[in-house]
Amino acid sequence: MTTEEGPIAKDAYDKLADxxxxxxxxxxxxxxxxxxxxTALIPDVEGKQILDAGxxxxxxTEWLLDQGGEVVAIDVSTEMLTRATERCGGRAEFHxxxxxxPLDFATADEFDGIVSGLALDYVQNWHRPFTEFARLLKPGxxxxxxxxxxxxEYNIDGDMDYFEIEQRTKEWEPxxxxxxxxxxxxxxxxxxxxxxxxxxxxxxxxxxxKEQRPERFEKESKQPVFLCLRAVRRES
Length: 236
Ligand SMILES: C[S@@+](CC[C@H](N)C(=O)[O-])C[C@H]1O[C@@H](n2cnc3c(N)ncnc32)[C@H](O)[C@@H]1O
Fold this sequence. Notes:
CATH topology: Rossmann fold
Bound molecules: S-adenosylmethionine
Strand content: 25-35%
Strand order of the largest sheet: 3-2-1-4-5-9-8
CATH class: Alpha Beta
Structural class: alpha/beta
Order of helices and strands: HHEHEHEEHEEEHEHHE
Low-confidence stretches: none
């Protein structure tokens, strides 16, 4: 098992919690590019046990509940968890947990599916969470996640090293640290921890995106921003 790592973005998300829904969740990028791309990969969750890993203020938790899923949701930020709890009331179970450490709140083979929207970008070594996800999923269970695309914010003419997992900063208020990684560091940890890749998409902006951010539509139709992936826990 790999070493535990501390959560680099907890303090930033604790501070962002008040403005997150307005400034990030409802932005054209999250609401009309990443969210439709990711939800399109999620199989039927009716009556299924689903883990929302890095639930934030409960955007995916609420959607999964509305689709009939029974949801356990985790996040490292106490403030984001408070917003998620308020949003979803008593409909889901919430735990504070760090994706870079053992997920002790759950037992093996407990979940039919795991969904993680834009949360893994804050974990450097994905072997840890993926090993835990493989343990928590039933054989054949699905794992759908979205992350920043490896080529988003990668400057091919600059001095960045494509092959490095490098810590960068989103210049929000407050600034949010995250990791950019190459494609091999997306796929290899999955394949090495007991998953097979089932579907992969690089979502395109929707009509609603065009309505909200017409000046960004053409650019984002030609360049990848997010990567969405569905993996399945191998049977053995
Ligand atoms: C961009 S938000 C996404 C929230 C939600 N999944 C969504 O799509 O709206 C990222 C979330 O990941 C959480 N997060 C960051 N690092 C984490 C870690 N190491 N363990 C668990 N959650 C983490 C943050 O607290 C934040 O709520």
